[in-house]
Each structure stands twice: as C-alpha cells, then as structure tokens.
From TrEMBL:
This is N-formylglutamate amidohydrolase. InterPro entries: N-FG_amidohydro, UCP029730. Pfam families: FGase. It comes from Rhizobium mesosinicum. It comes from the Bacteria.
C-alpha cells in the first residue's frame, strides 16, 4: 500500500472551543485504485467530492484560529459521511455514473477500505474533538461543511446555502437566524436533504454524545472559485465566532434522534 493520508488535521487553538469538519473535502485516491475505472472528468464532479469545501474550511480555520479535520480521500472510494453498516458506504452508481472499481467488491476489500480510510478519518475527528473538550472543560461546538449542486435532474435549486440537522436545534437555530438576516440569501432548513441520517458524521460524533453541532451546505457554484471562497469565508467567520461565544453552545445535552433509538 502506497503511503496515503486518509485525513488532514488543520492546526488551531483547542481552547477556543470549536472544531470545523470537511468530510468530502478532497477528490484524491491512492495510486493502487487508479481512477476506479472512471474517466478523469468524474473527479471534477460532485460525485467525487464537495467542490469548494477544502478551501473554505482552510480559510475558516485559519481566520478563526480553530482546528479542523479534512477527509483525505474521494467519496467514490468510501463515504466518510456514512455509518460503517450503511449499504451506500461504497457506491456502485453515483448520479448516473457506474463505478467499475466498486462493483463487484469483495467483503475483504470492503473491510479494508473501512479500516484503512474511513475509520482513521473518524478517529482523527474524535481525537480533535477530545482535545478541544479537554482544553476547555466544556463541549466543543462542531460545524460540518458540505456543498451541493446548483441543480438536480435539471431542476434548479433556489437555496444559496442550507442547514441540515436531526433533532438538536441548539446550534441550528442561531445559524439559520444569522444567515437569513442577509436579504440576499435564500437559506434552506433541511433542504435539499434531510439531516437525520443514522451513523453519519454528525450522528456518530455529536448526536450520540450530546455535543452542539450543525451541518452547513453551500451551493457549489458559489464557492467554486477562490473569490467565492473568500466571500463565503468573510460571511461565515463572524457568524461562527458569535455562535462560539454563546455558552449555551458548549454544553452537553443528548437529543433523541429522528432515525430511532441509539
């Protein structure tokens, strides 16, 4: 196995109390997988990664001075935002693209990808969150960033951004309120996806443990350039900083999940 980092930890001050995550930040694959039988063009599409998120998370962490964790591999290899028992963990087809390198796949290879890529990423997330909690003596505020396509099946999506969540509204309410205060933004609430997904990153690291959190989706055409990334970083830095200053967003409180019992 060639050396391949399954995650990158972005430096920051743990005592500031915040962690920023980018599950689908990168479109990289280890050399042994080639391109999974796909054309190179597939790796510039949303099926491979969340366009714009790597740059946005890097800027937010740098400007806020907080740590972050980036997934180091393409979601086409294995999806870090799915539970280990989720049947969509390794996709055979994504948005119409058949992935030859994922089908057929042996149980041994399935488990290898979990142990080599998926699990180390989540261990890095846990360890980073633990360091923040230990530095402050309080719950960290966790914000996860993703991006979505401007249209789906030729239907335009009207939202500039959206906040996804399960049942813990503590960080979601302030985030929605602050973003919607901008008259130029259309901000979705659990659009274009529902944020309740058993076993995903927010479920695993925050819902089960009672840590305040929110998942923010930004439309990818708005952060597909350096200019767009800078604009959204400038918009989000004061929002995230104000949220992080709220003591209510640094307490532990477990909320029942809409997906069923823990």
């Amino acid at each position: 196995m060639d050396h391949f980092p399954s995650f990158e930890i972005l430096p920051g001050q743990h005592d500031k109390g915040m962690v920023i995550l980018g599950d689908h930040a990168m479109n990289r694959l280890p050399a042994r997988y080639g391109r999974l039988g796909l054309p190179e063009s597939a790796f510039s599409r949303h099926i491979a990664y969340d366009i714009g998120i790597e740059g946005l998370v890097r800027k937010l962490c740098a400007q806020l001075g907080v740590p972050g964790v980036l997934g180091g591999f393409s979601r086409l290899l294995i999806d870090p935002n799915r539970g280990e028992d989720d049947p969509t963990l390794i996709m055979k087809i994504s948005d119409g693209a058949v992935i030859p390198g994922n089908h057929p796949i042996s149980e041994e290879e399935w488990n290898y990808r979990i142990e080599t890529f998926h699990r180390p990423y989540h261990n890095a997330v846990s360890e980073t969150m633990d360091r923040v909690a230990n530095a402050t003596g309080k719950a960290p505020l966790v914000l996860s960033l993703h991006s979505f396509t401007p249209a789906w099946k030729s239907v335009p999506r009207p939202w500039h951004a959206a906040v996804l969540w399960d049942s813990d509204h503590r960080a979601v309410g302030p985030l929605l309120e602050k973003l919607r205060a901008d008259p130029d933004l259309v901000v979705g609430d659990n659009e274009p996806y529902d944020g309740a997904l058993k076993g995903d990153t927010m479920y695993r690291h925050c819902m089960v443990t009672g840590i305040p959190h929110a998942l923010l989706e930004v439309r990818q055409d708005l952060i597909g350039s350096e200019t767009g990334i800078e604009e959204w970083a400038a918009r989000l830095v004061p929002v995230f900083a104000e949220m992080n200053a709220d003591p209510a967003l640094h307490t532990y409180s477990v909320h029942a999940s809409r997906t069923g019992p823990y």
